[in-house]
Amino acid sequence: MKKAQPVYQWDDYRAFLIHNLDHGEEKTKGQRSALASAMNCQLSYLSRVLKGEAELSLEQGEAAGRYFALAPQEKSFLLTLISEARAGTPELKDYWRAEKKRLASERLQLSKRITLEQPLTEEQMLTYYSEWYFSAIHVLAGVPNFQTADALAQTLRLSPMVVRKTLHFLVSVNLLERAEDKYRQTKKQIHLDRDSHLLRHHHINWKLKSVASYAFRKPGDLHYSSVVSLSRADLLQLKEEFLRCIEAVRSRIRDSKDETAAVYMLDLFEIADSV
After folding, report:
1. Cα 92–94–98 angle (5° rounding)?
2. What is residue 61's predicted lDDT score, i.e. its pLDDT?
């Protein structure tokens, strides 16, 4: 069968099973029988589990994870849900609730889903993220029409001196390479962890540039903000969907031809936690 809906949005493993058995993309009459067979149990026992009259074993949960084609991290979360339901003492239930929260939080960290080697030292990163134009020049140097210092200065409306100093730094840390008067990207990539103290500077730099771009209101630009109320389960699902979208976007960008440069940003946060 096709991959199940993300398990991280569920607080109870029965709800996860019922949703994917009865409301999934491939709803069929035989899915419950197929799952019972995959878990090596009777259909009647699975029915009792779904009604809350019995619990799955961890072995059955692992088999269910394989049936739904869950990734290793997702399977760990499913087994944690089952362990919480099976716990016989309040203390043990609290332990598994904490583990469930930890796994869900870890899943929402983009750095855990994207593996990149960090080629810069701490001091070099301080320089790179100090101003917006370091990353702008770094990216634009991958586009043929912007690979000279003069073209970069004119496009970004920066002084030639600032552009030359920035290019010198990017070459010195091996993020760019120079061939005569042209600059090109190397294969090295950088990514900030969620806990990095530089992340705030990076976001602020480009949020300010976003505000500036909105002032020009170019027809091809896209700006969208919305304030909504929703359930916590849907909030978790939205976070998961946005992260999958980011992963898909990164994959598309990686294989895309270098013709121009753009900035994409995404924010999703709870208002009560931010005021």
Report:
1. 120
2. 95
pLDDT confidence of residue 118: 60
Name the fold adopted by 7-107: 434 Repressor (Amino-terminal Domain) (1.10.260)
Mean pLDDT on 169-174:
94
Long-range CB contacts for residues 134-138, cutoff 8 Å, separation at least 24? 134/166, 134/169, 134/170, 135/202, 135/205, 136/261, 137/163, 137/166, 137/167, 137/170, 138/170, 138/175, 138/176, 138/185
Per-residue confidence (pLDDT) for residue 13, from 0 to 100: 94
**Is the pLDDT confidence value at 275 over 60?**
no
Per-residue pLDDT at 177: 94
> Can you give the pLDDT at residue 25?
46
| DSSP conformational letter for 26 | T
Q: How many CA atoms lie within 13 A of 264 on its CB side?
A: 8
Q: Are 134 and 127 in contact (CB under 8 A)?
A: yes
Q: Give kind and range of the element (H or E) at residue 184.
A: strand 182-185
Q: Is the pTM of this model over 0.85?
A: no
Task: Say how far apart CA 5 and CA 24 lie, in whole Å.
Answer: 7
pLDDT digits (tens, 9 = 90+) for 66-76: 999 888 888 99
Decide if pLDDT at 50 tops 50.
yes
Contact (Cβ atoms closer than 8 angstroms) between residue 137 and residue 163:
yes
**What is the Cα–Cα distance from 251 to 265, expressed in whole angstroms?**
16
Q: What φ, ψ does residue 130 adopt, rounded to 5°?
A: -75, -30
Query: For the chain, percent helix, then strand, then coil, each to nearest 5?
Result: 60, 5, 40
Q: What are the extents of the domains in the chain? A: 7-107, 208-273
